[in-house]
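During the first year of the project, the team set up a workflow for recording each protein of interest as an amino acid sequence followed immediately by a discrete structure-token representation. This format lets reviewers and collaborators read both layers of information side by side without switching files. As required by the reporting guidelines, we include two representative entries from the current panel. The first entry is reproduced here exactly as it appears in our internal archive.
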Amino acid sequence: MSRKTRDFFSVEWVKLELIRTAYATRGGLFAKMDPRMVISWYLILAVVPWLTHDLVTIIALFGITAASAALARVGPLVLGLFLIGFITDFAYAFGAAWVFGGDHETALALVEITLKLATVSLASIAAFVSLDPEELSTGLLAWKAPELLAFGVSYGYRMMPILFEEFGTVFTGLRLRSPQGKKGFLGLRALWRWGTWAVQAFYPIFLNTAKSVRTTVESLETRGFTAAQGRDLRIARLSIGALDVAVVAVTLVAVVGAFELGALFTIA
């Protein structure tokens, strides 16, 4: 069991999970949609939470984004990191209210802002784990985003596998060349060594990755990522279908229902 746990939380597993997330290999509802509509769907849920202070409405909006994240098949790594941050923020909200002498209203105000941030975070996770780099950059171009922004998004995603591979190689080399020593109390010495190696690994990573930068940039330029004609050709491949309209329509109805629910509880 311990070996399975180590394999589950190994550097290789983290690398594979991040690559799956970046390249949208898990599928899901939003992966079948037009990238323009996915971005529009995200903008709706990213703006709406900031238009209300009603806690019931915010909780309902959080439920909508949570269901969307489930439909998007978010990976365990990203979801786990989100849950850790979400629980930590909630603990911080109640802790800050208690330490600084606040009452229940102060705690509720901090909970409200935490739920709003969590709602926007879940919406962004559900949307962007469902789009591969080319679809995301094409969707940005379709919405008149600057060419350099779309180019940077696509280029950054394509550099991720190289960075992870280089990190694994350099980190393993540092482990083999460095003395292992004792683990110390609760393994603190071993944890310190691993942290030191991780920091030291970042310096040679960028030097090794720079060798691949020119080839990648030339490849993207050849495919017309920054040319006007290439932009028109990429946008021409997009098409909005019935699924796109249905998802956005259902989301709008659910958002209106969340506001109606908040108003109902306020009147009651």
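The second entry, processed by the same pipeline in the following quarter, appears below.
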Amino acid sequence: MTPKQTPFPSRSRVLGTGSYAPKRVLTNGDLERMVATSDEWIVTRTGIRERRVAAEGEDTSDMAVVAARKALDMAGVAPQDLDMIVVGTISADMPLPSCAAIVQAKLGASKAFAFDVAAACAGSLYALSIADRFIATGGAKRALVIGAELLTRLVDWSDRNTCVLFGDAAGAMVLGPSEDSSRGLLSAHLHTDGTAADILSIPGGGSRTPQSTQVLERKLHKVHMDGREVYKFAVRVLPLAIQEALDANGLAVADIDHVVSHQANLRIVESVLERLHVPIEKCWVNLDRYGNTSSASLPISLDEANRAGRLKEGDVIAMMAIGAGMAWGGALMRW
């Protein structure tokens, strides 16, 4: 007698969301006293008014755990019931082991396998896609996806072009199988162009240029960015990624109810939405309060929109993110 086979779910859905930002607020006015900049210059070019800075002794994993616990509480899932943990980050507590392994231990999620994804600001979207595939193929039933970054320790505070941008935070999502085949993550479409790797990088500290006195003196262990090229790249590829997701699901731009985006720069978000002919009112914008939180940006935005009651059952959510690599992607989710 052949045992009855349980079919795999067609997709995953979000069961709970959570986010965390440190208490310390660093305003544009504070930065005026640190580097040659001004509130007007920062707001005009980025849309950022303030950002959060982790406390001394506060690690990336600490922020990730707070966001994770909030998501688990909303989902009604205990840490020991998790099958996998995926953390999108490029600012882990240490180079080895992964931030996810430390998060697993702090949560007490002893059954879960855990690993990091290094796709910079696109990290949480990459992690979401990976977790979705595990759930959709039966490899996991409960997955925790986290985006967490502590970038204020990786920026050069004398470089006004980069230090004004970044903030520390974490966001989390708990995923499970979707019992309704029409709801959940409809599809995710990921891309990379390594030929553009030099426009946003931390060039020192790796195997190419190991940590040394020279690396420290030249600040090669800090974020280096060609902002103009990043902007041009982002506004070119992100509309295509969203359109790719729409086409894959037989949907049109008019079907989008909400946009949940990585927020690196308000000008990028506005330009992408303008090219797609999507009103900015459909996008949850919090860049002014947090700055660029890299991989944490997308799940924080989802959590805030969710807790504000903005997301209704059946709504179509378009997601987009882009980060160093260059790595980017678009996704559609039916709430």
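For the second entry, the following points were noted during internal review. The CA atoms of residues 20 and 66 lie 6 Å apart. The mean pLDDT is 96. Both points are flagged for discussion at the upcoming steering committee meeting.
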